[in-house]
Write a structure and sequence with these properties.
Elements: H1 7-23, H2 42-57, H3 76-88, H4 97-110, H5 113-125, E1 130-133, E2 149-152, E3 156-163, E4 174-180, E5 191-197, E6 203-208, E7 217-228, E8 232-233, H6 239-252, H7 259-271, E9 273-274, E10 277-278, H8 283-311, H9 319-342, H10 358-367, H11 378-389
Parallel strand pairs: 1-4
Antiparallel strand pairs: 2-3, 3-7, 4-5, 5-8, 6-7, 9-10
Helix pairs in contact: 1-3, 4-5, 4-6, 7-8, 8-9, 9-10, 9-11
Length: about 400
Amino acid sequence: MDFSYTPEQEAFRMQVRRWLAENLPPELRIDDPVDDWVPASREIFERRRAWQAKMYAAGWVGIGWPKEYGGRGAGLLEQVIFNEEYGRARAPILPGYSGISMCGPTIAQWGSDEQRRRFLKRILSGEDIWCQGYSEPAAGSDLAAVQTRAEDKGDYFVLNGQKVWTSAAQYADWMYLLARTEPGAPRHLGISYLLLDMRSKGVEVRPLVTAAGHAHFNQVFFEDVEVPKENLVGPANQGWKVAMTTLSYERGASGGGYDSQIHGLVDLAHRHQIDGRPAWEHDWVRQRIAHLAIESRAAKYTRLRSLTRQLKGQPPGPEGSMLKLFGTELGVRIAFFAAEMLGPYAQLAQPMPALADAPRWQNRVINSRQYTIAGGTSEIQRNIIGERTLKLPR
């Protein structure tokens, strides 16, 4: 495996780095995207939407998307290089991330020509922000158990039901969702993939405040909501296949980017005192950080294996589920080690003279577990790996 970049790719990297250095406002920089996935306020959201629009105008959103869809038409490695530099610059996750990384590619693959013309460029520009309507109170990991109904009325569906754990629904213009369109069909059949205008009559969004005090998630209720037939993606009653396409993109993007958290732990260990001397001077602290760094590096090379498959045009392998499982569990281990090292300071929600960034670590400890649930729980990923890759009995 060749880990080097060509001179042209390195020149592209320098171009990205210069543009970000010259254009990224300091107030938009964040310590770690895991800490701030969904904007905490409408004001922050609108600033980030404006940033996405600026990036799009300069050709930096949708690096690998075809030009006819508004992208740059660059190769996969250029997208990887851009992602590396974007993280290096401490730039924020774009408010349109769900549309860019999940819904947009799904529409490109399954949507009609009209749907591609209507939605794809607006996804990249940030004119339309999307959220995902999959989970329900009785259908989270068991996604095939969705009960939200979409009754066929000829030219439109009438939607009734509820979604939950809907990230950023309070900011979204559109939702891509699953609804049962044929109640008598087997569980994985009779489900359709619909695109919903969040301004439609009968849509209600209620925030769910997390333990960290952030309205990251939402409940969304539908009461006799009319969804035009042209907003059906893929064949009617075959939405499960379309939904799996979306999930493959979501899981492929999960479980990465932990090197910055390791660097944060090293910095914290040099600043924080244990028994009157820097934590870094204690053998057990250095050993634990080294172990976490090794795990982060293992995840990196697993991502490179997945990248190699794509570059060779091979079908997806087990790396997506492996990364989702291992990466999100690694995030929990990083957070819990930070809490162990900080002791009582890990509970502080306000900056203190002895620990100016205390809220960052408290937020990490409280929120880290959620990523082992979102996009398919760790238990589901173990089942996928065991049954589909290792061919173990159910």
